[in-house]
Design a protein that fits this description.
The structure is a single chain. The chain is mainly α and 360 residues long. It folds into 3 domains: 65 residues, 2-Layer Sandwich (Dna Ligase, domain 1); 85 residues, no CATH class; 115 residues, no CATH class. It is built from 14 helices and 6 strands. The strands form 3 sheets. The protein has a two-stranded antiparallel ribbon with strand order 1-2. It has a two-stranded antiparallel sheet with strand order 3-4. A hairpin with a 6-residue loop joins strand 5 and strand 6. Helix 9 packs across helix 13. The protein is elongated and about 115 Å long. The N and C termini lie far apart (152 Å). The N terminus is likely disordered.
């Protein structure tokens, strides 16, 4: 066969596609496959986003409208995180995390403490509006200063709407509310209520208020390791000390006198026995024989004379070392000077009288 014939035989074969891409074949099928894959992924992503949007929208605005009423108490100092958890637990909103994010994005908080009227499944926007309007029932604030007596606390309670000082005092001596610190056979809660600021709602009656104060003091005393004797000492420290720096030394004087068997001679106990909150103790006062007259009787008075705070309890438990047996006012700020001997005390007392700090 001639070269021409061979060449002609080749040209007679069927058409064959010849690659123009370095012999790698046609790229179009591969490109179409990747295009389909990417398109499928994009469609799936859009579907996920759409589904997520539906879920989010249902969480923010649940279908079907709000459900049954529900009251929720928001405690004092609650963060948005804590409020979200409470609302989710009570069924007001569906997701605590989404509610926190919603509040963060839309703005809101901090919210007031109190009792709120929500509805189940009411939606996040509606729930935030309820919180922004404020509580349905606001808390009433009751502040008990350190060193208050039961009578003074009762007077504060009696100023609250619907509460009675007389009922509070009657309950405090009835034995219905007891403290683990009370001696056996005693129904006297003097000194066993914690000085603190309490937030109360309309359901807190005199018994609930008293029980809360007694429980709070018992917990405080237990955390410090204070017993009833310590509370009595601390109550005298609370009433006698006018400045914080004097608490420890006054506690030391009381304990030193107890150890020496000397009368305590604490004016605050004399006033308590006479139902006098303030004023100078006169010679005629010292002549009145009450169980709280520590000029006439040695040892501790039978009960605390006021409600001590944490600092007074700590002073009674851990007073600084010192030999002092006396103290007397040293300046108008209420600061005391401390003495070990009667001669030193008399000099300090004369100096106080010259300054006009003592009378009577």
């Amino acid at each position: 066969m001639t070269d021409f014939e061979r060449s002609g035989s080749i040209s007679a074969q069927p058409d064959v596609q010849i690659s123009t891409q370095n012999g790698k074949g046609d790229p179009e099928p591969g490109r179409r496959r990747w295009t389909r894959v990417l398109l499928a992924v994009a469609v799936a992503g859009l579907l996920v986003l759409a589904a997520g949007g539906v879920v989010l929208d249902r969480a923010i605005n649940p279908p079907g409208g709000p459900g049954a009423p529900v009251r929720v108490t928001i405690a004092r100092g609650s963060s948005v995180h804590a409020i979200a958890s409470v609302l989710a637990a009570r069924g007001v909103v569906s997701h605590a995390l989404l509610f926190r994010l919603y509040v963060k994005l839309r703005g809101g908080g901090p919210f007031q403490a109190g009792i709120y009227a929500f509805r189940r499944h009411m939606g996040m926007g509606a729930a935030v509006k309820v919180l922004q309007r404020g509580p349905l029932i606001s808390y009433e604030r009751l502040t008990v200063p350190e060193g208050f007596t039961l009578e003074q606390i009762a007077a504060r309670v009696g100023r609250l709407p619907g509460r009675s000082a007389q009922r509070f005092l009657a309950l405090a001596s009835s034995g219905q509310v007891r403290s683990p610190l009370e001696p056996a056979g005693s129904n006297n809660l003097e000194g066993l209520l914690l000085p603190e600021t309490y937030l109360l709602d309309e359901h807190d009656d005199e018994a609930a208020i008293l029980r809360r104060m007694v429980d709070a003091f018992a917990q405080e005393a237990a955390s410090l390791g204070a017993d009833y004797r310590t509370v009595i000492v601390a109550s005298m420290v609370e009433r006698e000390a006018k400045v914080a720096v004097d608490r420890g030394p006054i506690a030391r004087v009381i304990l030193n006198r107890l150890a020496a068997g000397q009368p305590l001679q604490v004016d605050a106990t004399v006033r308590y026995g006479l139902h006098k909150q303030t004023g100078t103790v006169l010679f005629k006062d010292l002549a009145v024989d009450t169980p709280y007259n520590t000029y006439r009787h040695t040892g501790l008075p039978p009960t605390p004379i006021a409600c001590p705070g944490r600092s007074a309890l700590q002073a009674a438990l851990h007073p600084p070392p010192g030999p002092w047996l006396y103290y007397v006012l040293a300046d108008a700020s209420g600061k005391h000077a401390f003495a070990t001997t009667i001669a030193e005390f008399n000099r300090l007392k004369a100096a106080a009288e010259r300054k006009g700090l003592l009378s009577g």
